[in-house]
Amino acid sequence: MAAHALSNALEFVERCHSVSDIDTVIAEFRTFIAGYGFNASVCGAWDGLGQQRVHRFFFNDWPESWLTIYTEKDFVSADPFVEEARRAIAPFVWSEIERHRPLTPRAKDIYDVAHEYGWREVIGIPIHGPAGYQGMVSLASMKDITLSAADLGLLDMTSRVIHERCRKEIGFGVMAKDTPKLTARELECMQWVAVGKTDWEIAQVLGISSSTAHFHVESAKKKLGLSSRAEAVARLTLYGLL
Questions:
Q1: Which end of the chain has less Cβ packing within 10 Å, N or C?
Q2: pTM score, two decimals?
């Protein structure tokens, strides 16, 4: 059984790279996860930092009635599942969060409404990338599901593959070609900004004037398209430049 599941997963990975039609690939992914008992899925991402954060769905086949409830009640602003996706690295399970994390009254309300609707289990596969990019694939079921470590590993692999295929196909998120071209001096100044140095302190360390240090910091922010030093540091860190 395990060998059959692995074979199916690897076959999907191959087809995800070879089949040209994205809708066909998404349909095959839904068929694959249905074998584990999941009858709904969503694949999406957030991109950017602070006020510049935007989000989108690559595909979403959750029931329209549930999406209406979720939107009208503004669950996304307090959804513990979304919060977990932002800090987790490995796949996580909806029921585990409910059992092992302290929930705010708002989060508890979300779980109560979800249970009443009929959801029994949801698995989240968090995906993190450069420049504030965060993605997630969620798999949901209206029946109790027990997964082995191998099952979870295969769902993790296939979810990451379909997410990346969707990201590349639709072109959402920061790609390597978008990495800003900062000068060596701009990066040097931003490295000191990252540890909390002021323009005057950076000037003392580098042997330049305070105005020159300020100029390089502002130039780096402009190239990044950001208005605050904190956002610039975060963006450069996520680019792997700090």
A1: N
A2: 0.72
